[in-house]
Specification:
The protein is mainly alpha-helical. It folds into 2 domains: about 15-85, Arc Repressor Mutant, subunit A (Orthogonal Bundle); about 90-234, Up-down Bundle (Four Helix Bundle (Hemerythrin (Met), subunit A)), CATH 1.20.120.530. About 70% of the residues lie in helices and about 5% in strands. It has 9 helices and 3 strands. It has helices spanning about 15-40, 50-55, 60-75, 90-110, 120-135, 140-155, 160-175, 185-205, 205-234; strands at about 45-50, 75-80, 85. α6 packs antiparallel against α7. The longest helix is centred in the last third of the chain and has 28 residues, at about 205-234. The chain is globular and about 55 Å long.
Length: about 230
């Protein structure tokens, strides 16, 4: 039987080439915007200008809108009819769910370690970056270093899929951090605890490192939920 497709387009996909190119560009744009959110440059509730961002990145409106759709799917942005695209404002329920995922993934990563982890220098670098940010009194950078610390902890599980999953989780986490009125007071106390976890990893006591991390995440969740509740009550 004669194939209904031509030899030049045996799979019927030639018409999708332009879409593929645009999609990959949109994914790169989404990566850039996700990183900016994770680094604290876009605040919750801020409207994102298609004109300004498109010009800054040199991409078309269609490509930018596709990137916005990707990030909306990741719960980082929200689209409001006739108003535009905004950085999402998270809720207490979001905070609880984020920490549920983090406890499952990060603690499991430490539990899976059976010998000196190859990723330990990355953990140590994140702690050192936090120390540097603290000395320079750059509290936004300290928050970024803290996120990098937890990304490095999760990466000790050596799963590319987990690493990819947590990119969005940690970007959402940065949106949560903005609720804290005093970022210095919030982040400095956890820098000390990052050191404690690193010390246990270096010593090879992975069970104690996991125990410290579990308590740490419980405390951070409680503190953030209290801050959200106080804000809602105000």
């Amino acid at each position: 039987m004669e194939s209904p497709t031509s030899t030049d387009d045996a799979l019927g996909l030639a018409a999708d080439r332009a879409l593929l190119s645009r999609a990959s560009t949109a994914e790169r744009v989404a990566d850039i915007l996700r990183t900016r959110i994770a680094e604290g440059f876009f605040l919750p509730g801020v409207r994102l200008s298609e004109h300004d961002i498109g010009n800054a990145l040199g991409v078309s409106r269609n490509t930018l809108r596709e990137a916005f759709r990707l990030l909306t799917h990741e719960r980082l942005l929200s689209h409001e009819l006739n108003r535009g695209v905004f950085v999402r404002v998270l809720t207490v329920r979001d905070v609880v769910d984020l920490y549920r995922v983090r406890k499952l993934v990060e603690c499991a990563a430490l539990r899976s370690i059976t010998g000196p982890p190859a990723g330990l220098p990355r953990v140590a670098k994140a702690v050192a970056d936090g120390d540097l940010a603290e000395r320079r009194q750059r509290w936004q950078e300290l928050g970024t270093a803290n996120i990098h610390f937890h990304q490095a902890i999760a990466a000790l599980g050596e799963s590319a899929r987990v690493d990819e999953l947590l990119q969005g989780i940690f970007a959402e986490l940065r949106l949560v951090f903005h609720v804290m009125a005093d970022p210095r007071r919030f982040h400095e106390r956890y820098l000390v605890r990052n050191h404690e976890i690193l010390d246990q990893l270096v010593a090879g006591d992975y069970a104690e490192a996991e125990r410290l991390l579990a308590v740490y995440l419980d405390d951070a969740e409680r503190q953030l939920v209290e801050a959200y509740s106080a804000q809602a009550g105000g």
